[in-house]
Specification:
Blueprint (H helix, E strand, L loop, with lengths): L2 H8 L6 H22 L5 H4 L25
């Protein structure tokens, strides 16, 4: 075995740029998934019309009357 060959095997080799890019894209998707899953959505301002206000729920009880059934 030659000394040069042994030294080349131990030398640091950088990952190919395609693999680094794939890992970077996967990390980006993971971060976006966590943000959208656990934090308030940043897209609500784009989805809701500007003049729309949420409907308020009525407070208290609501009485409903039904028409009487005619007897034959």
């Amino acid at each position: 075995m030659d000394m040069q060959e042994d030294g080349e095997e131990r030398r640091f080799r950088m990952m190919p740029l395609g693999d680094i890019g794939t890992l970077a894209i996967a990390l980006l998707f993971l971060v976006l998934f966590v943000l959208l899953m656990f934090f308030p959505s940043v897209f609500t301002q784009f989805l809701m019309p500007p003049n729309a206000t949420p409907q308020a729920q009525p407070a208290g009880e609501v009485s409903v009357t039904l028409p009487e059934k005619p007897k034959n």
